[in-house]
UniProtKB/TrEMBL annotation:
InterPro entries: GHMP_kinase_C_dom, GHMP_kinase_C_sf, GHMP_kinase_N_dom, IspE, Ribosomal_Su5_D2-typ_SF, Ribsml_uS5_D2-typ_fold_subgr. The active site is at 11, 137. It catalyses: 4-CDP-2-C-methyl-D-erythritol + ATP = 4-CDP-2-C-methyl-D-erythritol 2-phosphate + ADP + H(+). This is 4-diphosphocytidyl-2-C-methyl-D-erythritol kinase. Residues 67-144 form the GHMP kinase N-terminal domain. PANTHER family: 4-DIPHOSPHOCYTIDYL-2-C-METHYL-D-ERYTHRITOL KINASE, CHLOROPLASTIC. Keywords: ATP-binding, Isoprene biosynthesis, Kinase, Nucleotide-binding, Transferase.
Length: 286
């Protein structure tokens, strides 16, 4: 087969703790990545007669060579010496800079697709290590399991969370991850807790929060308004550094009901949790 149509799912950060800062400025985190059944679709065709990498449609916000999909393909060519090329078509549904990991997920889907189509036979461990060079959130999408994460997001432990539905709102602003991490008001001293305590032990109540939320609410009034609005229906939270906010709901029917009430000014969707990534299910990766 020389072509594939593959999902690039979104993630939510069900909790995000900032526990310190490394000498290179990057922050030490503890987070719980929840994969969703909603995301982008990437069409990939392998080219045997040329080593060109191209992507359509062009994304006006990003130069094609900077696109994480193209960078993922180039990285694989460099690391393996592969002389094949690829043509990508992206159906984008996830907002950029939304905290849903769309760009990282696109990159992970490109890595797994080309590993398959170019018959590179790299294992998941190697692909996750390569993915980390593209972004902190790429490894979780390469591994394809809802996971507890530490470090900058690269030390992952797969977890099974109860099935849940979510309403996700994009409040129409783009949040700069670098600006949030650079804010003087950001607290960076959350205690490191054990995964077990965070999930169902002593720290469970206090742990399910996002340390970026206070700074993001103050910098972006629209995010603040969306969180307050969604908070009427449950434990609304910010995902990553935003801008999206989400609320877990007990059933699809309840998610449809809340979605129907979202003010017209905001884009929103409903999604179901996934323990295994739809990408891995599609590729038949165990
Ligand atoms: C914090 C998270 C949680 O999922 O936020 P979201 O991006 O999803 O909102 C991510 O780990 C983000 O990962 P990612 O979006 O890949 O970040 P990168 O491109 O690697 O980094 C963007 C910038 O954010 C800062 N940064 C990022 C991650 C980190 N652990 N510490 C940081 O200080 C750095 O200034 C970096 O230059
Ligand atoms: N294919 C892509 N899709 C989205 N963003 C991309 C892509 N390639 C590069 N980027 C860059 O990555 C940044 C982060 O995008 P994204 O992963 O969608 O958001 P977040 O990290 O907030 O979850 C974007 O602002 C954009 O500059």
């Amino acid at each position: 087969m020389t072509s594939l149509s593959l999902p690039a799912p979104a993630k939510l950060n069900r909790l995000l703790r900032i526990c310190g800062r490394r000498a290179n400025g990057y922050h030490e985190l503890q987070t719980l990545f929840q994969l969703l059944d909603h995301g982008d679709t990437l069409y990939v065709t392998a080219l045997t007669h040329s080593n060109d990498i191209d992507l359509a449609p062009a994304m006006p916000e990003i130069a094609t060579e900077d696109n994480l999909i193209v960078r993922a393909a180039r990285l694989l060519q460099q690391e393996t010496g592969c002389r094949a090329g690829a043509r990508f078509k992206l159906e984008k549904r996830l907002p950029m800079g939304g905290g849903l990991g769309g760009g990282s997920s696109n990159a992970a889907t490109a890595l797994l697709a080309l590993n398959h189509l170019w018959e590179l036979k790299l294992d998941i461990e190697t692909l996750a290590t390569l993915g980390l060079r593209l972004g902190a959130d790429v490894p979780v999408f390469v591994r394809g399991h809802t996971a507890w994460a530490e470090g900058v997001g690269e030390r992952l432990v797969p977890v099974d969370l109860p099935n849940s539905w979510f309403v996700v709102i994009h409040p129409g602003v783009a949040v700069s991850t670098a600006a949030v991490f650079g804010d003087d008001g950001l607290t960076r001293d959350s205690a490191i807790i054990s995964m077990r305590d965070a999930l169902d032990g002593a720290d469970a109540d206090a742990a399910w929060r996002n340390d970026c939320e206070r700074v993001v609410r103050a910098r972006y009034p629209e995010v603040d308004r969306a969180l307050t609005w969604l908070g009427q229906y449950g434990a609304a939270m910010l995902t990553g550094t935003g801008a999206c906010v989400f609320c877990p709901l007990e059933s699809e029917a309840r998610a449809i009901e809340v979605l129907g009430r979202v003010p017209d000014e905001w884009h929103a969707f409903k999604a179901q949790s996934c323990t295994r990534s739809p990408l891995h299910q599609h590729l038949g990766i165990a």
